[in-house]
Amino acid sequence: MDLFKAINERHSVRTYTEKKIEGKVKEDLYSFIEQCNQESGLHLQLILDKPETFSSFMAHYSHFSGVKNYIALVGKKSYDLEEKCGYFGEKIVLYAQTLGLNTCWVALTYSKSKTKFKIDKNEKLCLVIALGYGENQGIPHKSKSRENVMTVKENPPEWFIKGIDAALLAPTAINQQKFTFSLINNHTVLAKAGLGFYSKIDLSIAKYHFEIGAGKENFQWK
Prior knowledge:
Layout: H1 3-9, H2 23-40, E1 45-47, H3 57-61, E2 69-76, H4 81-98, E3 102-106, E4 123-132, H5 146-149, E5 150-151, H6 158-167, E6 179-185, E7 188-193, H7 199-214, E8 220-221
Parallel strand pairs: 5-6, 7-8
Antiparallel strand pairs: 1-2, 2-4, 3-4, 6-7
């Protein structure tokens, strides 16, 4: 499965089977996360077989079931930590989809006192991503129209439209999609976050999707 297909087929999943993450899938996932850590300077961690993290009332209230695995998005405190966690977290999410796994971004509905990840000095946890083999493949979220999230002065090139379409498939907190992409000139794009919960993380997730849809060779970020 390529990333274009992963973008279209990946949906948030909150209910998981008993099937373990093991063998080549486990090895490939660990390897990819380490690659993301080296590239980003983050301290992203894969935690397996720890169901107690999602055993809280809030997790059950939010319809999480069977969650035993998750990715902790941890990094050094900095002005761009949220952006990095969103961008590289979504890289892992889409890669996991290509491996046949399902995921869900999680902000509050887990027990922080029962988590098993490590936070070193001057580091911070942003979010976690639930991970495993879903009982279903989730359902598509409703999306805004292209016109609501893009700003152009004239007919945009095809690559820009493809980028917008990919960005609209990105997961965002409570599906708020509070981001805009502006075409500054023939090859420069400005992305901005709106106001709202986790909007900086949402923007960086959407930017990664935009890059896949538009093709990084066709533009540069402003």
